[in-house]
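Lecture notes, part 5. Sequence design as translation. It can be helpful to think of inverse folding as translation between two languages: the language of shapes and the language of residues. The source text, in structure tokens, appears below.
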């Protein structure tokens, strides 16, 4: 009996040792993701700790974290098995930032200046409720069924949609939210933020202040082959720079988001693996490098912070939107944009109208064509920081559809041929939820 107990003990130690060996390096990322998610969800959208743990953090391994929110200090801390404690702090105007032990939270910081002036117009161009318009060519019973079908029956957690919004000819024709969410809920767009970042270059180009076809203004690249990389290459994700993007392991993307102080420099410091414009490779590091490049276009940090809101976000009334910053104060242009479903829809409408916002030409009409034109080696699936349907990835939708896409199925679909914008926010990617089914249902509700 003693030998059996001893053998079981040894086996248990071996199992625990193996788990520790394979999991310990991930603890930094697990607790980092959890702390950041806790701080953002609680302080930006006022979600309870329980709601975040059962929703946003209900991910394998992330659910191992033990979390604590301090409302007075505006912080969230997370740890796994009492190890690898990470902290995120919330600062008004900048959102939540995952910090390291050396970060001085008492240091003064700049915040973007915002313009929340209300406009006495109906949605989408003002702050009033949308007009109640009925279109004869829409079968509303089919449309309602399609939108309802995007949500889980009570007690299930498969489709996990949080918001679905359908806008036709600038009018909301369908809108539905999951329990606990409303039209005022701010939802993380994850990589949809990349499309926001790219748009700022379109604005600068229209203003005559930037040429995307010139070599990227990176001094560190001027002594090697990287000096040939243009901003156009970066926008198309075909710079040729080394990068690994995966979210189920330690890689360039996860180390950048949950460890790096200056996220913009992570991709900047990578060597070239291919010649520019020869190899498409999706990279969140590239988007943060673009944010870094944007910072260098302004004499002061304040001007950089203000530009994103004054020239795009507040300019089109996306007043709920908040772009979070990294530890050095630059916007995390790859991943950390928060907004209501209605405000995400406004961004889609801006592109539907080729940059014209109720008479204000935000970017040149050609920019919408530029971002929605397939880039080399992307199998007609990617443009310039936008995803495309040119290759028919979504068979239910027209080939001219393009979209902002984010982790866990965040989508802003822009369909010019149908004068349609569809927003879907949730917690399930296409592998678990058939977004094509939603598209088929919505598009199928339009009478021939």
């Amino acid at each position: 009996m003693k030998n059996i107990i001893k053998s079981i003990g040894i086996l248990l130690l071996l199992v625990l040792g193996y788990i520790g060996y394979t999991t310990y390096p991930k603890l930094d990322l697990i607790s980092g993701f959890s702390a950041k998610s806790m701080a953002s969800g609680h302080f930006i959208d006022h979600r309870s700790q329980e709601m975040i743990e059962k929703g946003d953090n209900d991910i394998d391994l992330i659910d191992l974290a033990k979390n604590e929110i301090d409302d007075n200090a505006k912080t969230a801390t997370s740890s796994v098995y009492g190890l690898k404690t990470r902290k995120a702090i919330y600062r008004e105007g900048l959102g939540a930032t995952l910090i390291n032990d050396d970060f001085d939270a008492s240091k003064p910081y700049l915040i973007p200046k915002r313009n929340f002036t209300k406009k006495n117009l109906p949605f989408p161009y003002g702050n009033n409720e949308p007009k109640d318009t009925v279109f004869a060519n829409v079968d509303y019973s089919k449309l309602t069924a399609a939108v309802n079908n995007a949500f889980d029956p009570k007690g299930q957690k498969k489709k996990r949609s949080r918001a679905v919004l359908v806008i036709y000819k600038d009018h909301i024709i369908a809108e539905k939210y999951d329990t606990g969410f409303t039209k005022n809920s701010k939802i993380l767009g994850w990589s949809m933020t990349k499309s926001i970042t790219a748009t700022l270059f379109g604005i600068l180009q229209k203003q005559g202040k930037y040429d995307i076809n010139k070599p990227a203004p990176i001094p560190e690249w001027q002594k090697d082959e990287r000096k040939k990389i243009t901003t156009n290459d970066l926008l198309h994700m075909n710079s040729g720079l080394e990068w690994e993007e995966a979210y189920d392991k330690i890689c360039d993307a996860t180390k950048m988001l949950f460890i790096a102080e200056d996220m913009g420099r992570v991709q900047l410091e990578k060597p070239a693996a291919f010649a520019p414009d020869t190899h498409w490779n999706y990279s969140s590091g590239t988007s943060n490098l673009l944010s870094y490049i944007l910072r260098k276009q302004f004499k002061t940090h304040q001007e950089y912070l203000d530009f994103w809101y004054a020239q795009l976000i507040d300019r089109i009334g996306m007043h709920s939107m908040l772009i979070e910053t990294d530890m050095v104060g630059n916007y995390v242009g790859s991943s950390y944009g928060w907004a209501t479903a209605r405000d995400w829809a406004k961004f889609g409408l801006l592109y539907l109208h080729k940059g014209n916002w109720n008479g204000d030409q935000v970017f040149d009409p050609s920019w919408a064509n530029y971002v929605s034109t397939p880039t080399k080696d992307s199998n007609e699936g990617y443009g310039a920081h936008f995803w495309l349907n040119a290759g028919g990835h979504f068979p239910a939708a027209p080939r001219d559809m393009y979209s902002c896409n984010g982790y866990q199925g965040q989508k802003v679909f822009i369909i010019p041929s149908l004068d349609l914008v569809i927003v879907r926010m949730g917690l399930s990617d296409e592998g678990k939820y058939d977004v094509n089914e939603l598209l088929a249902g919505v598009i199928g509700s339009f009478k021939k």
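The translated text above is only one of many valid answers, since several sequences can fold into similar shapes. The CA atoms of residues 324 and 440 lie 34 Å apart.
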